Amino acid sequence: MAKELPQPPAGHCFHCLQPLPANGGYTVTVGDAPRQVCCYGCQAVAQTIEQQGLRHFYQFRDTSNPLQIPLLPEELQQLEAYDQHELQQQFTQTEADGQRSTTLSVEGMTCAACAWLIEQQLQRLAGVSGARVNATTERVSISWEPDKVKLSTLLQEIAGLGYRALPFQAATQEQDFKRRRRYFVRRIGIAGLATMQVMMIAIALYFGMVDELDDNLRQFFWWISLLFATPVLLYSAQPFYLSALRSIQARQLNMDVPVSLALLSAYGASAYATVINHGEVYFESVSMFTFLLLVGRYLELLAKQRAVATAANLVKLLPATAQREIANGEYESVAVNQLLVNDVVQVLAGQTLPADGELLTNEAEINESMLTGESLPVLHQQGDRVLAGTLNQSQPIRVRVAAIQQGTVMAQIAALQDQALANKPKLAERAEHLANQFVQQLLILAAGTFLVWSFIDPSEAFWVTLAVLVATCPCALALAAPTAVTGVIHRLNRYGVVLRTTDSIETLRDVKTIVVDKTGTLTSGQFSIAHSSYPDDDATQADALAVALERHSEHPLAVPFKSMNVLHPAQLSAVQVHTGAGISALWHGPEGNQQVRIGAPRFIADWHPQLAYAEADANVVLATETQILAYYVVRDSIRADAASTLAALRAQNFDIIMLTGDKQSNADAIATELGITRVVAECLPSDKLAFVQQQQRQGPVLMIGDGINDGPVLAQADVSMTFGQAADLARQAADVVAMRNDFAAVGHLLSATAKSRRILKQNISWALLYNLGIIPIAVLGWVTPYIAAIGMSLSSLLVLANSLRLYRQPKETSATTR
Known about the structure:
Layout (H helix, E strand, L loop, with lengths): L25 E5 L2 E5 L2 H12 L4 H4 L14 H7 L4 H4 L3 E3 L5 E8 L4 H12 L4 E7 L4 E6 L6 H10 L3 E4 L5 H34 L8 H22 L1 H12 L6 H21 L6 H34 L4 E5 L5 E5 L8 E4 L8 E4 L3 E5 L1 H4 L5 E4 L3 E2 L4 E2 L4 E7 L5 H14 L3 H31 L1 H14 L3 H20 L2 E3 L3 H5 L5 E4 L1 H5 L5 E6 L5 H12 L8 H4 L9 E7 L3 E8 L2 E8 L1 H4 L15 E5 L3 E8 L6 H10 L3 E5 L4 H11 L3 E3 L4 H12 L4 E4 L6 H6 L2 E5 L4 H6 L2 E3 L6 H35 L5 H19 L15
Parallel strand pairs: 18-25, 18-27, 25-26, 27-28, 28-29
Antiparallel strand pairs: 1-2, 3-4, 4-6, 4-7, 5-6, 8-9, 8-10, 10-16, 11-14, 11-16, 12-13, 12-15, 17-29, 19-24, 20-21, 21-22, 22-23, 23-24
């Protein structure tokens, strides 16, 4: 190979063809021979070209004009374009610690071994903090430090393993699936047509229908079978060879290695028997085996498409263009990916919002059903946050862009699903590891079988070994876990439930205690001021002060204050938000500067410890250091589905505990109505955290909450759940997000994960039972290659069909027996 590479003139760099330095420069091995290069940069690039299998760059370049030759192959130049910051904004997210994360779509993965190989290759790179691969969806979720490693380097590493990885774009996913479906349909069609023809001949030969014919005619039938089986082997079975070659190149065997060996061996031996007119032929096994495997892969592809369609359909709702405001109140049409934060866009009635932003129009009716499942439009006021992908229903509106592309809530939902698909429950990881190990043991077993049968019956040694390779291929075991995990994610998406991590599937099995926040969780979160009283009879001044203070809070109890009709809010400074307690500030009032507080009664009690509340039910109090200014009774209604869901959970012997920061009397009233017997009220965030930690000593805990003060306890719980309308901190800390904001999602979560665990165990048990049971039968020579091909394919299809049960429309409407 070294002689095929054009050599530069003596004393010139092998890569850039410029003169070498006086010390001779550096050395790099290309084409199994050392090459002299002028600098470290040329050495690094040449080494990358060699590692990526792009040696043709040196073979075919024109060295007659060194100043006009490219210094990088076109393949590497294309990958380096993904390092551009403007381009990365379209498909990457920036984490709080400065790391970047994205989802890559990988072509060529066929089983768990491929996923394991890519994970290991990426995780060994400096600067990569996490890499999770899902073989079912063929995606890689990766996080990296941009100052230590470039995205193009990660893409090149994957390319070096023989796979093609590019940033995942949901908008083009449907086209990609169509292309891949055509890829399989063509190969299935060829294999199916050939199999029918070869099987007709094989049946005639097997059942003695041509015994009275001479040997020449029998050999003629063999040649006809060879003619039909050849395109199956060379064209239809091509995906298996490519996958096997990649795994061998990476020194990590996958299940396509024994498949390829079996196909090539059966075809080769049959072709040899045809030429010499002696022996046995198994062209029908080659054709049938290929056909059944391709059908299994095709059905697996369809299952993948159904699993990932939900999030992809969300992203496809975004419009391609937006109307951006320019000078003099005019608008220009621009691509959505060209919008910037603080741009102002116009959205006409009936159009979809292109980005998250702040509503500038007085009010707007927005249909948010694609995010929440609620079909009725939501009335938003000026200053409210509106979301990309929602539908403007009433009138033309103006929106100031606050988040674009990967920063939108819609993109975050899709990212949550990608994250869940990339993660694997521990049982699934064990199954994938077992499948990887099984391939190696299978090859050893096949070699031993051939050796033993060479002594017993040399004429049958090859065919028995071939049956062992085919029958014991762990295809079903490789499909067992990823199809079940993808199925439960698809099932939960139907309910608007998004998993952040699939570890929750396993953990929920042992959960007996469910701790539930009250405000915004058991109640609807739609607060209103039911009653108010003012000890100094100055309601106007007190309300103006309350409005000014509560504008700084994101707590649900602050919402009704923000909509109060106040002409002149009070002037404040030094505003501080005390999480789980209230707000304090310096009030510039008519009597001078005063410290003022609004919040829970216990927060005010620091200033007024002997206070006897005039309003016993008041849960928000406004006061200065010297006097109480106002009592407010802020209430909301119980969720319509809370009572039925909690009743179903109690029927399953779950221990339900209400944990809230509200007053004991308010908490007891809600608990009595819902049938909750254990109530812990008037808790600070630290109190909630300590309580959950105490409960975890007795077993795993499922925590459900939605407020800012629930963030720490949601992170502490073994499994945590929140809602789409929850505070950002709660959504970031939770393992599960119910986008439709219905409490019944708790029951759906428990029933769906319980069913997925049963199906996952059934899949693994069946796959192991089949593989371990078929081994002695195949080794003893009781299975022909033809029967082995059918058995292996049927075992894979059985596992796939079992997992597809998770895709059926669920009948249950609440929690079901685990």
